């Protein structure tokens, strides 16, 4: 089975609770060259805020995925290309591994399974909201991270492994260790990507670089630079094969 993210290099993650930079539009975001939009955040997310972003982005060519932080914010909208549902492999609370998912499936009738996919998160920035929220055990060596990635792919059949440093730039050694541990799964990296260089460095190991805060803090020109960094790194990876 092949999935769209196998061809992506760059994702822009839009936090529905945060504004764009003054004067910028969602059309500008879609013109950065990013391969997909992921809509989600941890704090203060509501269905209404989600809907607003989906409505504003649906008319452009870039695929849009909802990334819900809990079952209550999932929206039913045909404009979405799909749902990327996190499961946090290093959470110390099973709610964030399978519990929320079980509740969601119990409550909702007729989920659209063809559009529903999971992301195996490894959360590594202890100071992020997401680490606190999911009680993640962030004290993981490169070897630990590689092993989590392998478990996710080989034992739990995950197609996406996501190294998450939300809010801070992570350790490239851990990202590369995760990449080396995977055969077919796609490796996402997110956290602190802020310019061409940082996107290029993480893009050397990660298949897909995710950019979040930068869009809301610095705007679309800064995001465009990260697209270029991620795309150049991806082209160099292909050349080296
Ligand atoms: C089962 C369903 C439908 C939902 C549960 C899905 C799970 C397990 C969510 C766990 C939390 C998680 C990994 C959310 C993804 C979004 C994310 C990481 C947002 C970024 O978070 P931060 O940057 O820390 O938060 P703020 O930007 O809101 O401060
Ligand atoms: O906001 P930043 O630090 O870019 O992180 C991106 C993303 O991984 C957050 O889930
Ligand atoms: Mg954030």
From TrEMBL:
One of its GO terms (biological process) is glycerophospholipid biosynthetic process. Its cofactor is Mg(2+). Pfam families: PcrB. One of its GO terms (cellular component) is cytoplasm. It is found in: Cytoplasm. Its EC number is 2.5.1.41. Mg(2+) binds at residues 15, 42. The keyword Lipid metabolism applies. It catalyses: sn-glycerol 1-phosphate + (2E,6E,10E)-geranylgeranyl diphosphate = sn-3-O-(geranylgeranyl)glycerol 1-phosphate + diphosphate. Pathway: Membrane lipid metabolism; glycerophospholipid metabolism. It comes from the Archaea. The keyword Amino-acid biosynthesis does not apply. One of its GO terms (molecular function) is heptaprenylglyceryl phosphate synthase activity. CDD domains: PcrB_like. It is an enzyme of class 2 (transferase). Sn-glycerol 1-phosphate binds at residues 13, 162-167, 192, 212-213. Transmembrane segments: none annotated. Keywords: Cytoplasm, Lipid biosynthesis, Lipid metabolism, Magnesium, Metal-binding, Phospholipid biosynthesis, Phospholipid metabolism, Transferase. HAMAP family: GGGP_HepGP_synthase. NCBIfam families: GGGP-family (TIGR01768), GGGPS_Halobact (TIGR04147), PRK04169.1-3 (NF003199). Prenyltransferase that catalyzes the transfer of the geranylgeranyl moiety of geranylgeranyl diphosphate (GGPP) to the C3 hydroxyl of sn-glycerol-1-phosphate (G1P). This reaction is the first ether-bond-formation step in the biosynthesis of archaeal membrane lipids. PANTHER family: HEPTAPRENYLGLYCERYL PHOSPHATE SYNTHASE, PTHR40029. This is Geranylgeranylglyceryl phosphate synthase. It comes from Haloferax mucosum ATCC BAA-1512.
